[in-house]
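Exercise 3.2. Students should predict the tertiary structure of the chain below and write it as structure tokens, then compare their answer with the key that follows.

Predict this chain's 3D structure.
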Amino acid sequence: MARKDGCPANEPAVYRFLLGNISATNESRSYAFKAGPKSNPDGAKIFCNGAPMNQIQWYSIPWGTTIPVTVTVERGPVEYSYDSLAIELYSACEEQRENEIGGLPDSTVNIYSAVYECIFIRPCSEVVINEPNKIL
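Answer key:
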């Protein structure tokens, strides 16, 4: 598990991944790359190469090669600790096969899932100053 501990609360945690194609057919393939929504109940903001990972991002990867991607995580509205966040990579043909046999959503068999953890630094105390005659 990749772990980032002590991340400043107002900065993103940065992870670098290599997406690879080791297909048995030695062909270029299209791969789906997405954040595992079930692993993020506290609403961390996850981006890949600057784009929000709120939907599948598709990559065409030639056989035997890798493509570098940068995933960043920003704090959500409340939490400072995010454990067991997951991102998933799977072949487009796996998704097509699941659709053809009537598989359930997110039941694709050959999914590679990378799990990572991000711990942001919690401030000593959060403070608010109000103006005279204004109630918070």
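Discussion points: Strands lie at 2-7, 13-20, 29-35, 45-48, 51-52, 57-61, 66-74, 81-91, 112-120. The chain has one helix and nine strands.
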